[in-house]
Amino acid sequence: MLDLFLGSLLILASLYSAGHTLLHKRDPRAALCWIVLCLFAPGLGPALYWLLGVNRIRTRARDWQIRGQGMPWAEAPRCSWDAEMSGTLPFRAENFAALLSLSDTVTRRPLLEGNRLFPLHNGEETYPAMLQAIDEARSSVFLSTYIFDSNGSGQRFVDALAAAAARGVDVRVLVDALGERYSWPPIRWRFRRSGVRIVRFLPPSLSGRGIHLNLRNHRKLLIVDGLTGFTGGMNIGDRHLAAGSDPRRVIDLHFRVLGPVVGQMQEAFLEDWHFATGETFSPQPPPPAVTGGEGYCRGISAGPNEDFEKLIWLVIGALGCARRRVRIMTPYFIPDRSLIAAINTAALRGVEVEILLPERNNLPYVGWASRAYHWELLQYGTRIYYQSPPFVHSKFLLIDDQYALIGSANLDPRSLRLNFEFNVEVYDRSLTALLGEHFDRAREGATPTTLASVDARPLPVKLRDAFAKLFSPYL
């Protein structure tokens, strides 16, 4: 009798879990996998689904808004295209006006003028600039990072942050709970007996928030005194010292930011701090425009707590605005069907599309899956190049020498659907010129791939790549 009761309970749990999946999962491939697991692995399937497959983050965010605990953002202004202004402001051109309207609709922040952005290459340029800003801090230092290694570079940041806190500066550090495990001991141990407030983002828990191995805070933000910001794709650790001896060293790009958009970076950090700690805050006025600031910028927070899959929508929107040239540099490139269609559509319209990828990926299975998609792009005119080691972790999107999208997100399902990411869209001809020159130099030293070379892969390699491609939604 007891066996019959337990068996009936398992069947009901499986059916209920499968039904919940059917109603709530947006991606039919993910839904199908969970349904099969729930129905054919009674007990284990439903348990894994409710632990790992249910996005409670979005539910909590909506609950905050209903109770009035959401952040009180002003409604973003809309753009009306004016042909007389198209020669002076790039986003007033007809094609970019459409992109501006899209961004106004799916983001919570307005486009702000009067910003300056300075590219910083590798840890050799980035870390000294960040440490100097921390040393000069007078009121606040907010740091958010995915990986914070406890090696030499990490220790220099620990010392600088602790010294700032000892001077009476409000120092807060937010590190991803999974990302901190990339080194031992965990970096938070180094902050013991300091005045630095360090918090982990989504630590594993069997109660409350549950276990969210897939939902990581991948944002890289440093905001000092609310006036100076740093963002991009760079974590904190010795591997970002390109001239070092670490066999895992990487080439990377980061940005020093001045101007009103720094206020949006601080908003993003404080939202995450509120999520992690429950502490509330009042919105602060943005910093003033800076002298010589020609950049029109908008900070874009994206993650599983948002109503829109805004990053993929904005990338597709930007590709649709391209008239002459698209340049993409990314370490992880696993496009979904909509992104493949947008790239191919741009190429078939006569737009020159170039993609720079690392020749040897630090995650081999991601590189295998990526290569399985290349023939779909090469056959319609997209050009793909491989950069020789060391691993290139830099990431940005350039459209027509007018528009740049920079930040922490990669072009893969994890960044576009699962991670908490922060990017900045920029209309600044000076910055896009610098990034364009950087891209072109890298392309000149890269190896082009062709449809013939993709077709010439040995059969075992093709099977390996195709098998890895099956897991694309989860890589």
Automatic annotation (TrEMBL):
Domain PLD phosphodiesterase: 213-240, 388-415
GO terms of biological process kind: cardiolipin biosynthetic process
Main location: membrane
Membrane topology: Multi-pass membrane protein
Keywords, sorted A to Z: Cell membrane, Lipid biosynthesis, Lipid metabolism, Membrane, Phospholipid biosynthesis, Phospholipid metabolism, Repeat, Transferase, Transmembrane, Transmembrane helix
MF terms (GO), sorted A to Z: cardiolipin synthase activity
Encoding gene (name): cls-1
Organism: Desulfuromonas soudanensis
One GO cellular component term: plasma membrane
Pfam family, one: PLDc_N
PANTHER family: CARDIOLIPIN SYNTHASE, PHOSPHOLIPASE D
Protein name per Swiss-Prot or TrEMBL: Cardiolipin synthase
Subcellular compartments: Cell membrane
